[in-house]
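Quick bug: C-type lysozyme inhibitor domain-containing protein output formatted oddly.
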Amino acid sequence: MSGIRNGLPKSALRLATFLPLAVSALALSSCDGGSDRSMVGPHNASTVPGFLGQRIVYCDDGSRADVDYLVDGLQMAVTWLPHGKTQILRANRTGEEFRSRHLKAIVAGKSIAFTFSNKRIRACHPIEEGG
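Here's what came back:
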């Protein structure tokens, strides 16, 4: 009876202690609130779940970004070209700013103003069709 406490074997007690911790860790890891995620290759409906549309923008500082609109239009995936990390930004409602932990994006017409956590602002505009 040395391996039984309150009628439960030690293995069951270890499981009862470990299981709530594992579930809590899983729940916390799934709500990261806009963390960076890597997307490799071309972005389209067959490679990105929830893909709605894509726009390549050129910024006033000479940089470029691949902007993908996802799901219901309330998520934006921004990849700084040519080899930047993809960041997922989310908006609470249509017309509101998109946000992640380190980046904010405001869409005005066809242009997008990105504000970084260090307060640096990057204004970006789509290339005009046909030129």
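Actually, after a second look the formatting is fine. The chain is about 15% helix and 40% strand. Closing.
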